[in-house]
Specification:
Bound molecules: zinc ion
Family: Belongs to the ADIPOR family.
Helix content: 55-70%
Subcellular location: Membrane
CATH topology of the largest domain: Rhopdopsin 7-helix transmembrane proteins
Number of strands: 2
Structural class: mainly alpha
Protein name: Adiponectin receptor 2
Radius of gyration: 39 Å
Number of domains: 2
Shape: elongated
Largest sheet: 2 strands, antiparallel
InterPro entries: AdipoR/HlyIII-related
Order of helices and strands: HEEHHHHHHHHHHHHHH
CATH architecture of the largest domain: Up-down Bundle
Membrane topology: Multi-pass membrane protein
CATH class of the largest domain: Mainly Alpha
Length: 445
C-alpha cells in the first residue's frame, strides 16, 4: 500500500465527516423551516420511528430541555414539529387554524413571542446546544476515523513496503547517490523500522555488522570484567581502564546499528540518532585511548594524566561539533571523516613520546606498537573509503545492497576495535608478567 492510498483514505474520512455535518445542518434547517411553516399548533415527538402526536392545546409550551430529558440519551432523533395526523388532535387544532387572517395573525404573534412560545434567546440557546451536539458527534466520529487510519498506516508499514530507488527518496533520506536502488521508504513507525532489520535493503549490512559487533564486544567485555582479580596487578584500576574501552565500543556500535535501523523513520528521528551515531565514534576513540595510555605510561602518571585530559577535551569537542545539524549533511561527509581521523591521530603525540622514551625495539615488542599501527591503518582506511564512497563510486548501482563503502567502513571499525583490544590485552599481560614495580624498567613502561 502506498502513501497516496493512506492520503486518499484520510481525504475520504474528512469528506465523510464534512458531508455528515452538512447533511445534519440541512436536516436541522429543514426542520426549522417546517416548524416555521406549520406554526406552533402541535409537534410530533419522533422516537425510534414511533410518532406520538401531542396536541399543543394539551400541553403548555415545552421547554426543550424537558423534551430531551424525556427521551433516552443516544436514542432520540431530532425533535421536529409535524402537522398533526390523528383525528382528535386535528379537531383540537382546527379552531386555531381557521382562516388565513387568523393564521397570519398567529404567525405574527408567534414571531413576536418566538418559536413555540420560546423567546429568540432561548431558541438561539437551543440551537447552540444542538450545534454543540453535532460538533461533538462529528469530532468523535473523526477521532475514531483518525485512530482507525493510524492503525491502518502502522499495519501498512509493517510488512507491505517495497524498496525504492534513490531518486524518489525525500531529501532527508538522500545520502549516497551512488546507491541507486534498494532504499527503504520513509516509515513513520518504530516497529516497522525494527522489523526492516530482517529485510534486504541498503542498510541491512550496516545494521547487522554493528549489531553483531555490539553483541560480540558485550560478551567479550562481560567475560573480561569477570576475570579473576588475581590475573591483574591492580584489578580495580585495570578493569576500569579496560572497561572504558568496552564501554566506548558498545556505545559506538549500539548507537550505530540503532541509527541505521531508525534512519528512515522521519527527519527528526534520523537527525537525533545521527548525532548519537557520531557521538558514539568519539566515545570509541576516547575509550580506546584510556587503557592504552594507562599501560603505556604506567610508570609515568603525570604525562598519562595530561594525555588523557587532552583526548577527553578533544573528544568532547568532537561530540559538540557533531550536534550541529549541518554536520550530518552529505556535503560534510569529508569533514566528518576528518574530525574523527583527527581525533584518532591526536594519539600520534603520546606515541612519539613513547617511542622516543622506550626506543623503537621496546616500543614494537613490549609496547605493542605494531598492533596500534594496524589499528590506526584500519580506522584510517575505513574513514577514507567512507569519505570517498569507494567502491560504489566506480560501480554505481552495483554495490547497493552489499559491499558499499559504509559497510566496509563498519567492518574496518570492528576490525580496528578488535585489534586494539588485542594490543591492550597484550599490554595487560606484559604488565602482569612484569609486576607492579617500575624501578627495574627505564622509561614510561
Ligand atoms: Zn554507520
Amino acid at each position: 500500500m502506498s502513501s497516496s492510498a493512506a492520503e486518499s483514505y484520510f481525504t475520504q474520512v474528512q469528506f465523510q465527516a464534512k458531508a455528515g455535518l452538512c447533511a445534519r445542518l440541512a436536516v436541522y434547517k429543514l426542520d426549522s423551516d417546517e416548524r416555521r411553516e406549520e406554526g406552533p399548533g402541535a409537534f410530533v415527538l419522533r422516537h425510534r420511528g414511533h410518532a406520538a402526536s401531542i396536541s399543543h392545546d394539551d400541553h403548555p409550551p415545552i421547554n426543550p430541555h424537558e423534551r430531551e430529558e424525556d427521551t433516552p440519551t443516544g436514542q432520540s432523533e431530532l425533535l421536529s414539529q409535524r402537522p398533526v395526523q390523528n383525528g382528535s388532535a386535528s379537531e383540537k387544532t382546527k379552531g386555531s387554524l381557521e382562516g388565513e387572517e387568523e393564521q397570519r395573525g398567529e404567525e405574527e404573534r408567534s414571531a413576536d413571542e418566538g418559536f413555540m412560545g420560546m423567546t429568540p434567546l432561548l431558541q438561539a440557546h437551543h440551537a447552540m446546544e444542538r450545534m454543540e451536539e453535532f460538533v461533538h458527534k462529528v469530532s468523535t466520529h473523526t477521532h475514531h476515523a483518525m485512530e482507525r487510519m493510524e492503525e491502518f498506516v502502522h499495519k501498512m508499514w509493517e510488512g507491505r513496503w517495497r524498496v525504492i530507488p534513490h531518486d524518489v527518496l525525500p531529501d532527508w533520506l538522500k545520502d549516497n547517490d551512488y546507491l541507486l536502488h534498494g532504499h527503504r521508504p520513509p516509515m513513520p513507525s518504530f516497529r516497522a523500522c525494527f522489523k526492516s532489520i530482517f529485510r534486504i535493503h541498503t542498510e541491512t549490512g550496516n545494521i547487522w555488522t554493528h549489531l553483531l559487533g555490539c553483541l560480540f564486544f558485550l560478551g567479550l567485555g562481560i567475560v573480561y570484567m569477570f576475570r579473576p582479580n588475581m590475573s591483574f596487578v591492580a584489578p580495580l584500576q585495570e578493569k576500569v581502564a579496560i572497561g572504558m574501552f568496552f564501554l566506548g565500543a558498545i556505545l559506538c556500535l549500539s548507537f550505530s546499528w540503532l541509527f541505521h535501523t531508525v534512519y528512515c523513520h522521519s527527519e527528526g528521528v534520523s537527525r537525533v540518532f545521527s548525532k548519537l551515531d557520531y557521538s558514539g565514534i568519539a566515545f570509541l576513540i576516547v575509550g580506546s585511548f584510556v587503557p592504552w595510555l594507562y599501560y603505556s605510561f604506567y610508570c609515568s602518571p603525570q604525562p598519562c594524566f595530561i594525555y588523557l585530559l587532552v583526548v577527553c577535551i578533544l573528544g568532547i569537542s568532537a561530540i559538540i561539533v557533531s550536534q550541529c545539524d549541518f554536520f550530518a549533511t552529505p556535503q560534510y561527509r569529508g569533514v566528518r571523516a576528518g574530525v574523527f581521523v583527527g581525533l584518532g591521530l591526536s594519539g600520534v603525540v603520546p606515541t612519539l613520546h613513547f617511542v622516543i622514551s622506550e626506543g623503537l625495539l621496546r616500543a614494537t615488542t613490549m609496547g605493542q606498537m605494531g598492533w596500534l599501527l594496524l589499528m590506526a591503518a584500519l580506522y584510517i582506511t575505513g574513514a577514507c573509503l567512507y569519505a570517498a564512497r569507494i567502491p560504489e563510486r566506480f560501480f554505481p548501482g552495483k554495490c547497493d545492497i552489499w559491499f558499499h563503502s559504509h559497510q566496509l567502513f563498519h567492518i574496518l571499525v570492528l576490525a580496528g576495535a578488535f585489534v586494539h583490544f588485542h594490543g591492550v590485552s597484550n599490554l595487560q599481560e606484559f604488565r602482569y608478567t612484569a609486576g607492579g614495580g617500575c624501578a627495574e624498567y627505564e622509561g614510561p613502561l
